[in-house]
Records
---
Amino acid sequence: MPTPTRTTNEAVVAAARELLEAGGPAALTMQAVAGRVGVRAPSLYKRFQDRDALLAAVASATADELGARFEAAAPDLPQLAAVYREFAHRHPEAFRLIFTASVAPMALQRSVEPVIRTVAGMVGEDHALDAARLVTAWATGFLQLEIAGAFRLGGDIDAAFEYGLRTLIAGLVAGSGREC
Amino acid sequence: MPTPTRTTNEAVVAAARELLEAGGPAALTMQAVAGRVGVRAPSLYKRFQDRDALLAAVASATADELGARFEAAAPDLPQLAAVYREFAHRHPEAFRLIFTASVAPMALQRSVEPVIRTVAGMVGEDHALDAARLVTAWATGFLQLEIAGAFRLGGDIDAAFEYGLRTLIAGLVAGSGREC
DNA sequence: ACCTGAACACCGTTCAAGT
DNA sequence: ACCTGAACACCGTTCAAGT
């Protein structure tokens, strides 16, 4: 008779996310993930083609969660920025993973839509995409540098984030509306 | 009698950089690096404590090279941005490596100095650090997203980069001088 | 149908032994 | 003094054999 399944894709991805966040990518081994869901490593290959596919699933799940928080924060740009930063602080490893070449590009498309919508409301449809790319590039770079510990020259990081957001908005508004 | 050395740290790092750029981090194995400099893997441990130390040396060499190009481009912000982008395009893997947590934070400090100097000339010393962080965060994030293939919604990427730089400068100038 | 033990290839790393 | 063969631990992955 057909044997009932002993775990689920969701449980596997959840276990992988925990291991990733706890010990970085090196800790996300097939054996460790399998152990967490009560199975042996070879069984995982029934669900994911290989480790890269599992990483992609983790990235995708992370992007979906982020997208949901963006959805709740739009169309308030400072709120979007705050949500993004808090998410990166809480899941630094998953945050990094999302922007890894092999994995993520597609997973992000949907989650970024609330950002485009928000920015479009500020600068108009014509520059919406360019402006969204400006804002996401800044925030993503800032958080990546912050997480990597690259801000070593002192100063208040929170204040630098506020300054960046404020200055960015000033530039967006100045560039879109009439000049003075 | 003392055996003459069969390679140098510089040659090892150069070989590592080539392998990294050609095949990503996974291709940078101790055996492959050793093979490229005509030696066996265990010999590398005389020069670098472990693979992570070698990666750190690669990151450091990359950051130094980038710093030299920044030095030549300062204090022209658009020129700095163009140099940065060209460097990222030509060495995407090394560029990514620089911002990996375990490796790089310190290697960047010196190379970023020309950027701070340039930005200070635009907004004054008071906001120099915040403004430099805004600019580097934007550029780094943009390039990372571009390299990762995350800009999938169409549009002209070159134009988006120009737009970002222009808008950023507008914000910086508006925020520093008197308002209107 | 699903799971696993055993096996293979590959990698990082150590160390005693070579020259 | 420097280098290396051999060995060890560990990982990703495959597959025939179990239930």
---
Amino acid sequence: MASPAVQPPITAPTQCVPRELLESPLFLLGRLGYEVKTEVMDAFEAAGFSAYCYSVLAVLDEGDRETQATIADTLKIDRGQLVGILDELEEHELIERKRDPNDRRRHLVSLTRSGKRQLTGYRRLARRLEDELLGPLGEGERAQLRGLLQRIAGARDTRYVPRP
Amino acid sequence: MASPAVQPPITAPTQCVPRELLESPLFLLGRLGYEVKTEVMDAFEAAGFSAYCYSVLAVLDEGDRETQATIADTLKIDRGQLVGILDELEEHELIERKRDPNDRRRHLVSLTRSGKRQLTGYRRLARRLEDELLGPLGEGERAQLRGLLQRIAGARDTRYVPRP
DNA sequence: TATTGTTATACTCTATAACTATA
DNA sequence: TATAGTTATAGAGTATAACAATA
């Protein structure tokens, strides 16, 4: 005994994220952040290296002769995780690990010549990804976004506050 | 034979994320997005439910009588993942699952009375979290951030474009 | 005993694939 | 055969903990 009135299709023609979620910067930040992160990782992976390689090389390019613990701390990644990344970088001779003669427990990690060159390539890739993912935003808007995110990040953790 | 000149502490006094990463909106978006996501999840978890419960309830509050596939699609989560979330919500009688008499494969999911009430609570929690995590930003700035993120999200996926 | 780097292990979230029941 | 929901499984990515070497 079917109901006499034929029911119209109940599946919504276009599913759309609820307005209250779309209007939550937190929801958008979390969702976009996750998507961005995975896409960036995939892109770097496709280019041949782990996504963290760029970050690590960037750290080494600024501060000289860091120890592994410092690098891991700076990037908020696990020390154990960093080992694998450094292994990869060392295999390709982008970095060098040398025992610290003053404290033989430590490794002094430094950028090699070809590491510096590779860093340039990573920068180009990063720029390309930014253009891709932040495409709809103009220069001024990107700066605006950067400023806002920096404010949030800086308030959460001092290591996100640029040194004077 | 220690070197005569005592080496100053080589560990940088303050580790700081490299400037070039801090100036990349992509890096900040990815990092903050991840942190925000996990913190929000933890907060909801601490409040007793999975973090997705709020999203699901919000969907149900807008569109009526959705099927599970529609909900999963809308929120870009896996159908299999959704099952567990709905189980949890149903256990606490926040939603109801009824077989669609027109197609007995489908479940018509709807919000219960106490589900609607719970949604209000979730909204309060979401507001609190937003205040917490976006604290350093004023009202205008939050709106700015929301607008920018909406632009990015909308360009990537039409389901992030608010319906007119 | 404490710390550095390393290795091994477990856990969380997500993605994929097999299964059932209906169509 | 194809689809909706369910269940089971495997896969990243990350976090925790044990380990050897050095201090």
